[in-house]
Amino acid sequence: MRTRLLVAALAVVLLLAGCSSGGARDDGRITLRFQSLAWQEESVEANKELVAEWNATHPDVQVEYVQGSWDSVHDQLLTSFEGGEAPDIIHDASDDLADFAYGGYLADLTELLPARLRADIPRRSWQTTTFGDGIYGVPFLQEPRVLIANATWLKKSGVRIPTPEQPWDWAEFRRVTKELGSRDGEYGIAWPLKEPVSATLNLSLSAGGRLFHRGADGKVTVRFEEGDEVVPRTIHDQVNTDRSASPTTLGSGGSDTLPGFFGGRYAMVPLGFSYRQQIVQQAPDGFDWTVLPAPAGPGGLAQGVSPQTLSIAEDCPHKKEAAAFLDFLLQPRNMVRLALGDWMLPTGTEALADPALRTREHGWATGTALAAHLRPAPAQAVRGYPEWKDKVATPALQEYYSGAIGLDELRDRIENDGNLVLARYQR
Fold first, then answer.
1. Whole-number Å distance between alpha carbons of 164 and 191
2. How far apart are the first and last CA of the chain?
3. pLDDT digits (tens, 9 = 90+) for 330-341
4. Displacement of CA 215 from its chain's centroid (Å)
C-alpha cells in the first residue's frame, strides 16, 4: 500500500512538472516555452531557424518552440493563464494585451528589456504595449493597410496613380472607384469586411477620426464625430450609391476576394500588407499588379496598427533569460528575417532601413514609405474593446455598409450601446 502511494505521489509531481510554463532540470539547464503564431511557411521556418540558432549557442537556456494559432489565441491564453500553464514567451497582437496586462498575467518588461531594443523601436510603437506605467510586450512586426490594384486596369483607365508622396484623398478615391467600376459586373473596389471594425477605425485616423476619448479621470467614452464618419460613409456610398464597390464581398475575408481580383471583377482590393505573399503565390501568369497607399485626409497617411508582440508571462520563473532570448530574436538582422518571412514591416528603425525591405519589387518600398505614418490603433488600451467590437460595432457597421440602416442609427448604436458596454469595464 505504501509503495502504491509513493508511486502515485511521484506521478502527480511529474504531471505538475510537465504542466509548468518553464523551469530548470536536474542538471541546471533552463527550458523556456515559446508559443509562436507564425503560420506562413516562410515565417514558421524563420522562427524555427532562430530558435535553433539560439539553442546551439545557449546550452544552459534552451527554448522549446510551440505552435499556436491566431484563430484561438485569446481564449487559449486565457485558459492557460488561469490554469497556470501559460508559455513563458508569448506571441500575440497588441490589441489583445490590455485585459491580460491589467489582469496581472503578463510581466512588466520595463526593467527587463535592453537599452538597445528600447531605443531602436519608436515611442509610438511602444505606446501600443504600454498599459498604465508598465510595458507588457515588445511590438516587433506591423503592417499598413494598402490598396492592391490591377496595374493594367489602372493604366488603361488613365486615372492618376497615387504615391505615398501624392496619395488620393478620400473624395478623389471615391471618384476614381466610380470611374473604374463603370461596367456591369466590374467594380472599382471590393471591400472584404467580414471583420469591419479594425479596418474602419484604423483607416479613420487619416480623416481625423478618434472615436475613443479618454477623460481626465482615465475613463474612455465613445464619440462618433465628423472625422469618424468619413471612411464608413465613403464605403457605404461606394456600395449603395455609386455601385462602384461590390456588395457581395462585404461579408468576405481578404483571401476570398482574390479569385475575383485575378479574374478582372475588381480593380482594387484594400488588404493588409502581408497579403502580397498570397498574391505572388496565386496570381495567374502575366497578371500585373501594384501596391498603392490607402487614401489620405487631414491626418495625412496616418492609419492605426496593432503590431504583433512578444510578451513574457508573469508566472515565468526565468524572466531575465526569457528577455535575453527576446533580445536575440529581435536583433536587427533577425527582425529583418522575421519581417521577410511574414511579408510585414519590422518596427525597429535599423531593420526597417535594410535594403531588402526597400526594393520596388512586390511593393516593399511603398510599405516602408508608410511605416512612419503608422500610429497605435484607436482601440489600444481600451478595456472592453473585444466585447464592444463583437456585440456593438461589428453588427452596426455590417448593417450600415449593406444599406440596412442609416448614418444616424449607426452613430447612435456605436455611441450609446458602446458606452454602456465600456462602462462595465471602467467602474
1. 21
2. 55
3. 999 999 999 999
4. 26
